[in-house]
Every structure is written in C-alpha cells, then in structure tokens.
Amino acid sequence: MDGAPSRVLHIRKLPGEVTETEVIALGLPFGKVTNILMLKGKNQAFLELATEEAAITMVNYYSAVTPHLRNQPIYIQYSNHKELKTDNTLNQRAQAVLQAVTAVQATNAPISGTTVSESAVTPAQSPVLRIIIDNMYYPVTLDVLHQIFSKFGAVLKIITFTKNNQFQALLQYGDPVNAQQAKLALDGQNIYNACCTLRIDFSKLVNLNVKYNNDKSRDYTRPDLPSGDGQPALDPAIAAAFAKETSLLGLPVAAVPGALSPLAIPNAAAAAAAAAAGRVGMPGVSAGSNTVLLVSNLNEEMVTPQSLFTLFGVYGDVQRVKILYNKKDSALIQMADGNQSQLAMSHLNGQKMYGKIIRVTLSKHQTVQLPREGLDDQGLTKDFGNSPLHRFKKPGSKNFQNIFPPSATLHLSNIPPSVAEEDLRTLFANTGGTVKAFKFFQRDHKMALLQMSTVEEAIQALIDLHNYNLGESHHLRVSFSKSTI
Q: Which CA distances in Å does 10 have to 5, 43, 50, 78, 265?
C-alpha cells in the first residue's frame, strides 16, 4: 500500500452509481467513520476513520481480500491528507448519511442533556439474541443472518432451528453492547421487501454451545468443527447468490421500498465479515437475474417435464422445462424470477424423487431454449409459460404465505362435498405409499390434511395428484403442510 499510514483512506475505481452509504459500509467493521468525501466525477472517495489504528486494520484487511462494490473490484490506499476538511454546505448529503449511520452505532451515547455512564444506559444484558422471523416468504439462511448482524459487531456463533412452525435463531456477539445495538436497529425491520420481519429479544443464555458447522449452526471462532450428520454447509456460491437485488443485502436502500432502513447497511461490511469467516462472496453471482436451475441425478426412466413442473411449481411459476437429450438424468428448469429459483433450490436440493436424491443448483444458462420449429425433441422440452396451474400469478395470493419445505403431511384443498375420507385415502394409497393419517378441517370440509409415511411418498403423491379431477369440476390442489396430524 502506498504512503505512510493515515486515518484518511483514498478509495479508487468506484462504480459510477455507488452511494455514500455503500462506501461508509466498507469502514464500519473496523471502527467509527468520521467523515466522507465523494468525488463522483472521478469515481473516487476519501473516507476518514476515527483512529489511525482502525485505518491500518482496514487497509491490511482489504489488501488480503479485494473489496467489491456492485460486483466491481475497488482499490484502497492511505491518503496524503491527515484529516478531511470538507465544505459542509457542499457535502450536506454525505454528512446526513454519516450522521444516520453514527446514530445507530452510538446507541450507547449518553441520554440527551445528561451525562450518564454507559453502564446506566446499557444494563448488563446477554450477548445472545433470540431472533424470530415472521412472514417468511423467502428462505433466510444462516449466511444472510451473519451478513446482516455482522454490521453491529463480531458475530461469534449462530444456531438456527424451527420451533412452533417458526424459523428462529440464536446469535451470539462477543459483547452485549453489540447485541443491544443490533436489537435497537433491527427489531421489527424486514429482511426482504415487505416480508421476513425480524423479531428480536435478548436470550436468557449467555453462551451458545455449537457442535457442528453446517447450514443450521456455525461457530465462527472454530472453523475446525465437523459438519455433522452429512449436512453440507451452504455452498458459498449459493450464499453469494442469495444477496439478491430486492434485499437489504444488495441495492442502495432508496431503490427498495419497504426494505430495511438505511441504517442497516450490510453490503460491504457484511462481505468483509463473510470473507473474514473464510467465505468470500463471489462477485457477479446474483439470484435476482438467475432464473434457470440445473437439476441432476434424476430417475431418467420415470421423470417427465410435467412431473418436474408440478414439483417445482410448489415454489414458483415454472416457465419451461428441458430434460437434456444427451443426459436424461438432468434437466433445466426456468422459473418466473430469481427469488423463486432460489426458493425451489433451497427446498428441493437433496430431496428424493422417484427413489433418487436430486441435486438442484443455479444454472449458468439465462433461459431455456425451445426446440426449433418442426424439430421433434421427443417431448423433452415443454413450455409452461401460459399454464393455468401457476400458483403465484395473483399478486398477494394466499399461496405466498403457504410455502413450506417438502413434508410427509400434505395440505389438500378444493375437495367437493361428495368426496369422503375413504375416497381420498384410497386415491393417495394408489400412488404407491401408505396413508398414515387423515383429517378434514373442522370449519371447512373443502380442505384436509393427509399424512404419508415418508416425505418421498408425499412428494410422489403431490406430483401424481395435484390438479387431479375429483368430479363436479373440482380439481384437487395439493401442497406441503407445516402441520402434522
């Protein structure tokens, strides 16, 4: 790095549309940011930190891990200036952003007009937060939580679990003050646009005991832990892809109505934290644009475009399916948008379909090509763009709230009055599985829960019987349930 250390850093090669918030976020993990000057015309900025130590730590860190903003590498070096003298009238916008950020960081500042010691303002609380996620339309991964919460201090450990059909997490900071700042800033905020609302409380636990590092739990202080029970930790490419455009992890906040407030500027800070944990985000992967999935290890004797359409259609509106001509155990599936492909991948990767554990990853293809006019591809490619069976066409449809991972219990709806429990038990037993339990909804006999003996049998039954004609112009609707009978 050029020049003698200074608490003012010179940042070059910034993308044209980058915001002050994103540049400030680069410095946040290292300490307080005290000033910023953006030179928009030159694609450069000066960032001033409160101490020279913080600036040295930041420069050393980013010399080992090239920082990226908006998927573009940027360059950081010491400035010749020892401090930034900015004309506040010209630099008002940057100052306002800076104040907003520091307001969150300085949660432990004295209460206005009084000089109270910090301990009086922040009673000794647990460094462990309990996080519940309401209205979980998109899956929230451990890496996403790490990315958001790292902005407020070093996250040591995270454990995620489902309790009372709600996704919850316990997250431990090194210092209770960080936990308090995170709770103040994030409680009640949405992770994604208008959904996945964070509800945060202090846990009674003061230390978490993490046995495995996988996609359910992680101890960032102990990279040596086993992954346990064959659960692979989340693939870093998928984690990076998950910082999707509509989320608080990507766009400048102004462009995302209803997303997190500008105070939660993870972006670069989170990238730094994630990289520090040895999982550098992959530039250039963004789920927002990646709608095509590659599904492999399919049972080629059994699989059809229709069966893939029905199963993947639980998580989004499937546009096209192509079973590969030269490799019939693999298929490309195009979803309506990147959120849906992400959702289908997170729920269906590793599930059993027709006796084989399928693998679902993002494809490098942008679209699924249809065969040329007059070319017979033996029905391996099918266009479902205008299918009446899409579940998510209507904005705000109830289906958005009823997206659950594959489970042995199925939710049935649109049952005509003439169809009895026995009829449905027989129908589902004919798909090759065993019906373990059945229950009509008390208020509404149009709906029922039906439990197969395994998740694989339930997947098979859903593929075979979703949209099955029960007569009286009633087509049965089948989805996975979060309840058990």
A: 11, 11, 15, 6, 20
